[in-house]
Amino acid sequence: MISQIFILSSKGDHLIYKDFVSLFSSALFCLCLHLLILLQSHKGLHFIHARQGGLYWVASTKTNPSPFTIIEFLNRLAALTKDYCGSLSEKSVRMNFALIYELLDEMVDFGYIQTTSTDILKNFIQTEAVSSKPFSLFDLSNVGLFGAETQQSKVAPSVAASRPIMSSRGEQGGKNEIFVDVIERLSVVIGSKGVLMKADIHGEIKIKCFLPSCSGELSVCFCSSGYSSAVRVDECRFHQAVKLDEFDTFRILKVCPSQGEQTVMQYQLCDELPCAPPFQLFPSVEKDYVNRSVNLSMVLIFLKLRCDLPPKSTALNVSITVPVPKGSTSMSQELSSPDQTAELQPKNKALLWEIPRFPGGAQLSALFKVDVPGLSSASLLEVGPVSMSFELPKQTCTGLQIRFLRLSPTQTGLSQRWVRYVTHSDSYTIRI
């Protein structure tokens, strides 16, 4: 008999919780992921799990049923969720929580499995699914925007859009310029074995106009890197002033740029990373004794960091933060290059390793010796997870690129048009 059903995100956050027997406190959701998955039992409860779509599908039981039956049920629940919701991801589960609860009510009665048949369930399920299907920005075989949320939602421009640029710019000999910035923010969770557990990309396209008069219309044409593979996103939104007449057919946005800054498009890709993660970390954490008689010990933290960007690319301002045990007093380090720096931050209970420039394809290492009086084996669990921050110039993780910028009618005087790409780390976590 099944006692409870959990659906957990890759970070261990509970998305769905269903208690069939009402014998246990709801505080059970507060148990972290390693307690549910790694310990396999807690206070007489046995936990059985399956991993599908980057999510953990967990069942608890007080009795001793066949684990293969429970695993088969969890896999079937995941398959039904995908059939009804259109995709299997954290976002689709959050958007369709009411539908999933209705499915569980029909599939399980007081902890006993009733049915997993789609033909039977479709006669009872009344809730309609909220679709979150991705679409291709460059698949021109279909009409429309291919299921994405592309209605012209109002995207508020930044303050610079309503603030005039200095009118004396052109008079002082400055150039007439238009900048198009493609900015992406990357959120990644990598497991202790190097497996990508979660990846989200939030992007936006900004136009910065420094023309003395903006009476013309700017056409922005998209393409994918290499002009071959398609760029897929889950949803995109446009500024209210953007014209989408040629977007379906030619992937061209038209906008009359005002002086200042405008965010003309925002897009999002969830639970997928089209390219390899930019960094891979190979950590090692050990305990060592300085003086056993006075119980003076240290933690040896060896980090080998590899940059998986193309050889001609460079990551800038790379910062690695590693939590250390609470009682850490001092630290010594051995770094693989002189331009790196490292320091212990006792207030934050972490060490900070900074690399100003990290070429693509390169590999750097560091050995940290952290003095921790009275170090216990349990204190080693306080090391990690590692968090990183960085900037990737001239890079987009989705592969989105600007093919051309065209002003019509042609403005008087020579105007310069620039396209800049940059990817920032929003949250880049690596578990040890």
**Overall average residue pLDDT:** 79
Structural class category: mainly beta
- The amount of beta strand, in percent, is 35-45%
Q: How many domains?
A: 3
Shape: flat
CATH H-tier superfamily of the largest domain: Mu homology domain, subdomain B
CATH architecture of the largest domain: Sandwich
Write up this protein:
The protein has 432 residues and is mainly beta. The chain folds into 3 domains: 4-122, Beta-Lactamase (2-Layer Sandwich); 177-275 and 397-430, Sandwich (Immunoglobulin-like); 279-393, Immunoglobulin-like (Sandwich). It has 7 helices and 25 strands. The strands form 6 sheets. The protein has a 9-stranded mixed β-sheet, with no helix packed on it. β3 and β4 (45-52) form a beta hairpin. The protein is flat and about 75 Å long. The two termini are 35 Å apart. The model is unreliable at 140-174 (pLDDT under 50). Residues 175-431 form the MHD domain. Keywords: Coated pit, Membrane, Protein transport, Transmembrane, Transmembrane helix, Transport. InterPro entries: Adaptor_comp_med_subunit, AP2_Mu_C_sf, AP_mu_sigma_su, Clathrin_mu, Longin-like_dom_sf, MHD. It is a peripheral membrane protein. This is AP-4 complex subunit mu-1-like.
Features:
Beta-Lactamase, AP_mu_sigma_su, mainly beta, 432 residues, Immunoglobulin-like, flat, 5-stranded antiparallel β-sheet, 9-stranded mixed β-sheet, protein transport, transmembrane, 12% helix
Ordered list of secondary-structure elements with their pairings:
Elements: E1 4-8, E2 14-19, H1 33-37, E3 41-42, E4 45-52, E5 55-61, H2 67-85, H3 90-95, H4 97-107, E6 108-109, E7 112-113, H5 118-121, E8 135-136, H6 168-171, E9 176-190, E10 196-210, E11 217-224, E12 232-233, E13 235-238, H7 247-250, E14 252-255, E15 260-269, E16 279-291, E17 296-307, E18 314-323, E19 330-335, E20 341-345, E21 350-359, E22 363-373, E23 386-393, E24 400-408, E25 415-430
Parallel strand pairs: 9-25
Antiparallel strand pairs: 1-2, 1-5, 3-4, 4-5, 6-7, 8-12, 9-10, 10-15, 11-14, 11-24, 13-15, 16-17, 17-22, 18-21, 18-23, 19-22, 20-21, 23-25
